[in-house]
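A.,

Following up on our hallway conversation. Structure tokens first:
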């Protein structure tokens, strides 16, 4: 069994979650931890028993003993850090969302393509393509039980916002640093799941959208906030697929995370996150009469999502798997989300 020396760049909430998961796998050996805050870096090193820590991520990259790094910093730092990591020959697990701007997305894709021997795994396959629920639903579609998929409908609205979930994540309320609000945070998972069911074949042709960020006064929680609080888009794809997508945090309403998929032979209704219901409703006809069947996806022994992604990354390093989310694929999803957030007319 080969062991890999890892460096953690970014020791905030996500960085620590991934550190805990890596430490459950004998192949992983965390030898560096980095944070811009000395107190955070030192505390994380002590908590996880890591020998070396630094406030400068370049110290991690300069160590030739490091095989791979986790980049778990805010999105606006990702392009610089990934370029530097690949230039020093490191493999990379890149947290989502992959970048704060379309320009940075393209830099990341270019850097990855210039380093074909390095593994780069983007994290939006967490909660989505690694889970048993995704595999179950995809198998139904691949078996032809729904016929031709012609429409997807998804909505998820909450009154709460990211800063209430992660009080230390003030950067996530600034779109120049985070790319957006719920569309950047949850949206990467939604598109990863839905478009992954269709093998990422559909290509976006047109979009109409709206967004609002004037619904809640966030000044009691954070000094600055300009990310969207509510938005929706009607999208058309080159395959004939249409997709209505609504998302929001800080909305004066609530709608549970729910997806409805419509096909010429049948339809599905489900909640795609692992912590939601494991039931999948299948609507079809039998002898011309409407029929409904409810499946319960067996989640027994299905690994925690964070453990699943660290295991998958190590499997990629071992050559046992190919990255389920490449930066090229993630870039396609980010481009759609940027169009939702920045375009209000059909294109």
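Then the amino acids I'd put at each of the 347 positions:
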């Amino acid at each position: 069994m080969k062991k890999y020396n890892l460096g953690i760049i970014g020791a905030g909430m996500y960085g620590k979650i991934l550190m805990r998961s890596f430490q459950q796998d004998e192949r992983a050996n965390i030898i560096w931890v980095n944070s811009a805050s000395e107190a955070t870096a030192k505390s994380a090193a002590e908590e996880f028993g890591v020998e070396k820590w630094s406030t400068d991520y370049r110290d991690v990259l300069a160590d030739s003993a490091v095989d791979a790094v986790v980049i778990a910093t805010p999105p606006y730092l990702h392009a610089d850090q990934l370029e530097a990591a690949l230039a020093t020959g490191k493999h990379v697990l890149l947290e989502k969302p992959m970048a704060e701007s379309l320009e940075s997305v393209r830099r990341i894709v270019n850097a990855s393509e210039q380093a074909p021997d390095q593994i780069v795994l983007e994290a939006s396959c967490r909660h989505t393509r690694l889970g048993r629920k995704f595999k179950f639903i995809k198998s139904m579609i691949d078996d032809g039980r729904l016929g031709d998929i012609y429409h997807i409908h998804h909505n998820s609205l909450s009154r709460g916002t990211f800063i209430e979930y992660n009080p230390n994540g003030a950067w996530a309320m600034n779109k120049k640093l985070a790319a957006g609000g719920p569309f950047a945070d949850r949206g990467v998972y939604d598109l990863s799941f839905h478009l992954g069911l269709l093998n990422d074949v559909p290509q976006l042709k047109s979009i109409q959208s709206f967004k609002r960020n004037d619904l809640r006064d966030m000044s009691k929680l954070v000094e600055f906030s300009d990310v969207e609080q509510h938005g929706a888009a009607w999208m058309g794809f080159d395959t004939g697929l249409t997709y209505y997508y609504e998302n929001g945090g800080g909305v004066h309403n609530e709608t549970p995370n729910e997806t409805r998929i419509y096909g010429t032979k049948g339809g599905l209704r489900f909640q795609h996150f692992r912590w939601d219901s494991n039931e999948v409703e299948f609507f079809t006809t039998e002898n011309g009469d409407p029929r409904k069947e409810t499946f319960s996806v067996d989640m027994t022994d299905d690994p925690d999502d964070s453990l699943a992604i660290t295991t998958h990354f190590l499997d990629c390093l071992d050559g046992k798997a190919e990255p389920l989310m490449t930066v090229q694929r993630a870039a396609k999803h980010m481009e759609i989300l940027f169009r939702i957030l920045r375009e209000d007319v059909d294109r």
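The radius of gyration is 20 Å. Curious whether your intuition agrees with the design.

B.
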